[in-house]
Amino acid sequence: MTPVEIAVEIAGWAGASLILLGYLLITAGKLTGQSPAYQWMNVAGAAGFIVNGWWHGAIPSAALNIVWMLIGAVALLRIAARRRKVAEAVK
């Protein structure tokens, strides 16, 4: 295996691990869907799947994970906006 191939496999496995860990933490009640940590796990995990899927020619998987990553990014933006609104209200 070349160093690039190893990096692609690491990205895929890291992505899978992050998404699985996020799901486990949600199921165990340790995080909520509105948790930045959960959303960052989804964004980073999807990015790893995108790299791996694209490399292996799994275009449907890569496309799905682009959408998954965008959903997580929008959630993070909404969480940040809500926090700013609360902080402004407190002033």
How is this structure best described in words?
With 91 residues, this protein is mostly helical. The chain has one domain. The protein contains three helices and no strands. The chain has helices at 3-27, 36-55, 59-90. The longest helix is centred in the C-terminal third of the chain and has 32 residues, at 59-90.
- Shape call: elongated
Number of helix segments?
3
Q: What is the CA-atom radius of gyration, in angstroms? A: 16 Å
Strand content bin: under 5%
> What is the mean pLDDT?
96
The N- and C-terminal alpha carbons lie at a distance of 57 Å
| Helical content class | over 70%
Largest sheet data: none
Number of domains as seen in the coordinates:
1
SSE arrangement:
Blueprint: H1 3-27, H2 36-55, H3 59-90
What structural keywords apply?
3 helices; mainly alpha; 91 residues; 85% helix
Task: Summarize this structure briefly.
With 91 residues, this protein is mostly helical.
